[in-house]
Amino acid sequence: MSHKIVPALFFAVLLALGGCGTFGDSEKAKAIDGTLTAYGEAVRWGYFETAYEYLPPKKRKEFPAYLKNIRVTGYDVEKGPVMIEKDEAVQLVRIEYVHDDVQLVRVLKDRQRWRWDKDAKGWWLDSGLPDFE
User: Fold this and answer.
1) What CATH number has the domain bearing residue 114?
2) Per-residue pLDDT tens over the stretch 104-119
3) How many CB atoms within 10 Å of residue 51?
4) Claim: this prediction has a pTM higher than 0.85
5) Helix extents (H) in 1-133
6) Are residues 90 and 113 in contact, defined by beta-carbon separation less than 8 angstroms?
7) Greatest Cα-to-Cα distance within the chain, rounded to the nearest angstrom
């Protein structure tokens, strides 16, 4: 192995480990990765009833009926997840969607705020579902 490659490889490994370290322990890191992936897929494919289950139980009311008229055409993570406090992470997502009755593509930026629940050992979407106008 070339001596020039070794420092570059070492630096790449440090960067990768540094990214994982932002979540402190691996339980939270594994949980947020799985949670964000599953939630993103639920929104992307229009399974809003499933996405709704990611809200903290105390914030759930009646399921918003207007979501049945929304079709998501794009879901792209622009930034995140980033820990902003010990048990709080944020992620910025760009969502393209269409109201089925209007057929006009709209775009929204969804700043998701996720909170760790140590009792449930999972993450809740504290910021709520996206505001599809």
Assistant:
1) 3.10.450
2) 999 999 999 999 999 9
3) 21
4) no
5) 5-21, 26-44, 48-52
6) yes
7) 62
